[in-house]
Structure formats: C-alpha cells, structure tokens
Amino acid sequence: MLKDKKILLGISGSIAVYKVADWVRELRRAGADVKVIMTRDATRFVSPLTFAALSGNKVHEGMFDPDDAEKIPHINLAREADLLLIGPATAQTIARLAHGMADELLSAAVLAADSPILVCPAMNSRMFLHPATQANLHKLKEFGYTVIEPDCGNLACNEEGPGRLAEWPRVFDGVLSALSKQDLAGRKILISAGPTREPLDPVRYLGNRSSGKMGFALAAAARRRGAEVVLVSGPVSLADPAGVETIRVNTATEMADEIFNHATSSDVIIKAAAVSDFRPEKRCDLKMKKSGADLALPLAVNQDILLTLGKMKKEQKRFPLLVGFAAESHDLLEEGLRKLADKNLDLLAVNDITAEDAGFAVDTNRIMLLDRNGAAEKLPLMNKTEVADIILSRVARMLNA
Ligand code: CTP
Fold first, then answer.
1. 352 Cβ closer than 6 Å to some ligand 1 atom
2. Which residues of 7-46 are buried (b: 16+ CB within 10 A; e: fewer)?
3. What is the pLDDT, as a whole number, of residue 290?
C-alpha cells in the first residue's frame, strides 16, 4: 500500500520512542522507504542503531554531520519525502514547530518540507491540555499539518488522561489518508456491511458467517479518498472506522430502513452486507422451550434491498451508482451476469465462497468484477483494503465519466 513512498519519520524525546520502532517495521512491510531523524533527547531513550537496523537507512541526528554536510540534510531529507511523520511529538517539539524554529535538524526539515506533515503528540496529560500546547497544536493545524490526537489512558508517569501516543492503526490510517488521491472528495457513499440477525426468540437467531471486514475496509478507504461515508452494519466485532458515520442494525428490515433513509442523498451505494434472505415467520417473545417445541420453522422472505434499489434506479432520472456483491459457489460468471442484470447494477464484485482464502471472515479476498457493460476482470488474491481501493477506483472513474 505504500510501495515507492518515501517517509521521513521524525522522533523526539519521549518514553514512547520505543513504540515507533514497530512503526518503522510496519511502514516497511507496507512497502515504504523510511528515513529517520532523531532529536538528541530521543536518542537517550532508544539508540539510533535500533532505527538504522529497522529502517535499513542511516539515522540522521544533527544539522552539522560532517559525513552528510554536502547533502544539506535538512533540505534533502525534506525534499525527497512524500510524507513527514512526527512521532512521538513532545510538547517541546510541538512548540518548536509552532514557532517555526530551525535550531535543530527535525524542526528545520519540517520548515523545508512541502509534503503532508502528520504530528503524533505524546506527553503527560496536563502538559498536553495546557493552553500553551493546545495553542501550539492549533497553530500546526492552521499550517495544514494533520494532528493525530493522542489516546486517553494510563500514562508512563502513572497518571490517567489524554497523552498516550496514538496506536498504530490510527496512525497508519492517517498516513494512508494523507497519501491518498482525493478522488472521492465531495461524494456521499453509503455502504452496508456484515451479516443480519433474524431473531427466533430473545436468545436465538438466523444469521450467517459474514465478519463485515470487506464493508468496513470499503468505508475506511472511501473516507481516506475524501468521501463522506455512511456505514450501515449488522452485528460485527469491528470498531467504527474513524471519520465514518456508522449505524448499527440487527435485522434485514432494520438495514433496509436505514439504507432507504440515506439512499437518495448518496452518490454511490455499495452493498457489501450479507443480508439474510429469510426470517422466521414468527418471533417468540419468550425463550422457546425444547419440551413441546414445534420443530418446523416457517420462514418469511426478506425484501431484497439491492433489487429494490435497482428498480428505483430504473424509475428515477438521477439515482446513485449501485455496487453489489455476490457470494457464489459455482458458475461465477453466469450467476454474476444474471445478478448484475436482475438488480440493475453498475458494478458487481463476485466472491468465490469455495476458496478458503477469500470471502467470509478472512482478511483476503479473490473477486471478479463485472461492470454494467458486462466486462469481466478477475483480480488476484489481495487483502480486503486493496480490493476496496480497486473497487473505489472503478467507482471514481464511473462518477467522473
Ligand atoms: N442483498 C440485499 N438484500 C437481500 C439479499 C441480498 O440487498 N435481502 C444484496 C447483498 O448485499 C449483495 C447482493 O444483494 O450485494 C447479492 O446477494 P446474494 O445473496 O449473493 O445474492 P442473492 O440475490 O440473494 O441470490 P442467491 O441467494 O439466490 O444467490
């Protein structure tokens, strides 16, 4: 996801320095080339050797390194970076950046940069909440820097409050957003995800194995590309994606209500949810007892939300783009083309549910994309975030066509 990206990581002196050793590994695992600047105080917590070994590059510490002098490090490092990631950013470093100081390598490089700058504060909560620090952070935002707010919790100084260095998933999301093309800016995207649960009684339900990972990956990726995203999700164990309006539902009927509520104000609807096709005809208010239970389970058919949207699209002049998913075990192309036509879709992602590494509950997916002209494209095995980005690139292209 960060192939060919050059990231300059600026590390200042906080106990949280040890945490960013892992960031370097994660950035490299995502394909980035990472160069590191450490302030003098940062090197007191963790040796530059650690970061040199992890990044595979020399660590830069001073403005006046004789081995580097001809390269003018503060200019060169800033110039070649696609993104500057400052973390942990101490109160002192934040103050330096807010005042445009250039008295050491890190702040001088920040001044010389014209790429996106992400600042990840880490400090004691009173230092963080002090009006001076807050005013400095406000200034950084005015400069156009992105501040990844710290987490709240137990701090190294044994106090509780805001000031813990943000955890990697949130930082990584910030890195990806800053480097993403904003090709969905100003677009409203409605996404459904996860399974639905159709209750039999207060404890039992009909459900399915969907984990919601594909829909959540789509929501996060669309938000990173600048879209305003509403995510309607059935019961899953995933946290709300940052910056996404997430609405939790249980049944197919509840999901349908939310989708129809938001449908016409959207530019795109992506239905990644595995909606239950059936529900028990009757829901018992009391727990069903096994003694004397009627073993037959009469079912009622749920409304096919996507099919209904496809019909509405036929009747309305201006209607959102419709993207569906199909879970198939055989005849993928034939079944996909049939669903594309029946549901009047612009794009359909067909999953082969017989493949172990794709579909339900795994992090990877192997899909075939069918578009409204019937063109088919088979994608190799990818993680769901990569699949999400490919689908969204198709969506962006259709919106701009
Ligand atoms: N879908 C929906 N409402 C339903 C059932 C499905 O909106 N009640 C949507 C899903 O979100 C998905 C698409 O329809 O985007 C395809 O679902 P799938 O179960 O694969 O296909 P079905 O049309 O239900 O056909 P079948 O079960 O016969 O394969």
1. no
2. bbbbbbbbebbebbeebbebbbeeebbbbbbbbeebbebb
3. 83
Task: Quote the tokens at residue 378.
Answer: 């088979």
Q: Give DSSP secondary structure letters for 166-201.
A: PPHHHHHHHHHHHHS--TTTT-EEEEEESB--EESS
Burial of 374 (0-12, 13-18, 19+ CB in 10 A): exposed
Give pLDDT < 50 ranges for the chain.
none
**What is the model's pLDDT at position 63?**
87
Q: How confident is the model at residue 358, as a pLDDT?
A: 67
Query: Which residue lies with its CA nearest to atom 9 of ligand 1?
Result: 306
Q: Could you give the CA distance from residue 9 to residue 109 in angstroms, rounded to a whole number?
A: 11
Task: Give Cβ neighbours of residue 105 (< 8 Å, ≥ 6 apart).
Answer: 37, 39, 60, 61, 62, 63, 73, 74
CB distance 147 to ligand 1 below 6 Å: no
The residue among 347, 401, 342, 400 whose CA lies nearest residue 370 is 347
Cα gap 140→373, rounded to integer Å: 48
Instruction: Report whether 351 contacts 211 (CB < 8 A).
Output: no
Which of 271, 342, 365 to probe ligand 1 with, by most ligand atoms within 8 A of CB?
Answer: 271
Q: Please state whether 359 falls in left (phi above 0), alpha (psi between -120 and 50) or beta.
A: left
Q: Enter the pTM of the model.
A: 0.85
pLDDT at 361: 67
Alpha-carbon dihedral 166, 167, 171, 173, rounded to 10 degrees: -130
Residues 6+ apart with CB under 8 A from 290: none
If you measure from the C-alpha of residue 304 to the centroid of ligand 1, how many angstroms do you get, rounded to a whole number? 7
The answer to whether residues 342 and 360 touch, using CB atoms and an 8 Å cutoff, is no
Residue 210, C-beta contacts closer than 8 angstroms, at least 6 positions apart: 193, 194, 195, 234, 236, 273, 274, 360, 361
Cβ within 8 Å of residue 89, ≥6 positions away: 10, 12, 97, 119, 120, 121, 122
Alpha-carbon distance of 165 to 130, in angstroms, equals 17
The answer to whether 380 and 343 have CB atoms below 8 angstroms apart is: no
Q: Is 371 in the pocket of ligand 1 (CB under 6 A)?
A: no
Q: Is the C-beta atom of 339 inside 6 A of ligand 1?
A: yes
Closest CA to 34 of 81, 76, 88, 93: 81
Active site residue 157: yes
